[in-house]
Specification:
The protein is mostly helical. The protein is elongated.
Length: 165
Amino acid sequence: MNVRRLELLFALTLVLMMYVYPLALMGLWLLMRELVEYRGSIRRSLIVFIASLPLYGAKIVLGISGWSRTLGITPVETSPAVINAVHVFFLALQFLSLYFLYRALSRMSDDTGAEMLKTGGLMLLVAIPLHFVAITAYFIATWMGLVLIIYGLEQTVGPPNIGKA
């Protein structure tokens, strides 16, 4: 297992997921190629992620995403129920995508003995509901999850063939 490459791929995926959501597709795809043993869980994560992309576009159009202000898009006038429904369904799909990524991390943790991988994955799952509380709490929890995942990858003691075909 090339630990540095995995650290970079997890960092790329999570940073893109936080800041430029659609581009995280590339990070998930690269993770799926790198971690052959965990391809099933990462593939499920990728499928759910792709399903969430139209809702992300709707978030931009409705003015929920910060990108609507950045891009200068005037939000579409609609009822708060529609806005809340789009936001809740998007976060549910994002949670499900991260859950499948957590399952891959959990299996990797079991295979390598690095318990911090599970803890980092759990922090990512905790971050999603925090999105409702405060966006700052979401970002802090996601960054903490990423740091714990990187620390966990540094602690791997498992077989050296993890991630190889």
